[in-house]
Amino acid sequence: MPRKNLHEAPFDEGTITKLEIFEAYAGAWLPTFIMSGSPDLFVYDFFAGTGYDIKGVEGSPIRILKQIQNQIHNVFQKKTSIHFIVNELDKTKFVQLQTSCNEFISNSPELTRAGIDMKYYNRDAGELFDELFPEIGKNPSLVYMDQNGVKFASDKYILGLAQKQRTDFMFFLSSSYVIRFGETTEFKKAIDVDVEACRNNPYKYIHKNLVEQFQKKLPKGSKVVLAPFSIKKGSNIYGIIFGASHPRALDKFLKIAWSENSINGSANFDIDDDVSKYQLSLFDDQPLTKIGAFKKDLREHILNGTIKNNKDAYLYTLSKGHLDTHAKEEIMEMKRNGLISYPERLPKVNYAQVYDKESIVVFTVNTKE
Q1: What SS3 class is residue 230?
Q2: Predicted TM-score of the model (pTM)
Q3: Rounded Cα gap, residues 142 and 140, in angstroms
Q4: How distant, in Å, are the alpha carbons of 8, 147, 161, 167, 238 from that of 4?
Q5: How many CB atoms lie within 10 A of CB 45?
Q6: How far apart are CA 25 and CA 145, in angstroms?
Q7: Among 7, 108, 190, 352, which is most exposed with the fewest C-beta within 10 angstroms?
Q8: Distance CA 218, CA 301 (A)
Q9: Rounded mean pLDDT of the chain?
Q10: How far apart are CA 182 and CA 176, in angstroms?
Q11: Distance between CA 356 and CA 359 in Å, rounded?
């Protein structure tokens, strides 16, 4: 499979979207564990690049350092040690990477005083992963695998990280490669997926289909949820696979994804053609948008008793890749229309109420006289 030098040209719009999501999640992940009192946090960037593109736009390592900088007051307060492991195979890029990170830190006295533990590697990502794998998850860990291609989306890496405790991870992969190279021997050695199943679905869903296949491979009883975000670049589809076992982590990722695209929260383009669905037809019923279809589905599950309370509704909402506000809107509408009742003013379908306050709101289905 062909490779290209990603820094011969400025980051394109799709790459910037990916980097924004990477950065935003680091910005949500860091304070969670810093404020929880975890003494050591580990962030791994196995494909770090040079730090900047040729126009000076920040790459993942600089963006992560910025988020650490944003939390520096909390780092000092909680006496947190942050260990940032960056790797770049290309020797020239590796030298640039070291220079970029060291200069950023030296220009930020608070980072220098905080003693951020930077570890630089100029290694093959697979070999380094094998070496560091036993340590990942011993402390809260955030792992980025920002590859060019699909090799590191194999069972070894995704299922391996899914078995780790206290580990959130993000993979970036060139999902279109499944269609272009899926029958080649090299591809089959790298990644074990049902290529024909991918081809039998609309091409725009290629990344979503891959993530669904990986989810099915997780061991029975695994609490890890994999969430996709598709990214279109020209005619190609790329994407992020986010993985975490804790509902709070998935909640944070989904809020970031929906902030990138408030129409579907799962792609940087109108993957479900929702814009056209908003336009009423004079002759046909208006088709449901992604949010509309979810609300209809949630309503049916509440009415048939599958979802009995706010915790059920919250976890179901996350599993469908939606925001708690989408569920809240529908449940409140059901109460206004007399379909259900509950004793509280609000349905409390969010992480803080369900987990932090352990407040359970039971839904009662109102039967017609």
Answers
A1: strand
A2: 0.94
A3: 7
A4: 9, 11, 27, 30, 15
A5: 24
A6: 14
A7: 352
A8: 26
A9: 93
A10: 9
A11: 8
Tokens of 119: 């570890």
* Beta-bridge partner residues of 244: 225
Q: What percent of the chain has pLDDT over 70?
A: 95
Calculated CA dihedral for residues 4, 133, 127, 46, nearest 10 degrees: 20
Beta strand spans in 216-338 (E): 225-233, 236-244
Among positive and negative, which fits the CA dihedral 89, 93, 98, 100?
negative
Tens of pLDDT, residues 312-357: 999 999 999 999 999 999 999 999 999 999 999 999 999 999 999 9
Q: Residues 5-20: pLDDT tens digits?
A: 445 679 999 999 999 9
Rounded-to-integer distance, Cα 136 and Cα 165, Å: 9
Q: Residue holding tokens 């909402």? A: 317
Rounded to an integer, the average pLDDT of 162-178 is: 95
Q: Are 306 and 297 in contact (CB under 8 A)?
A: no
Sign of CA dihedral 304, 310, 312, 315: positive
Contact 18, 58 (CB under 8 A): no
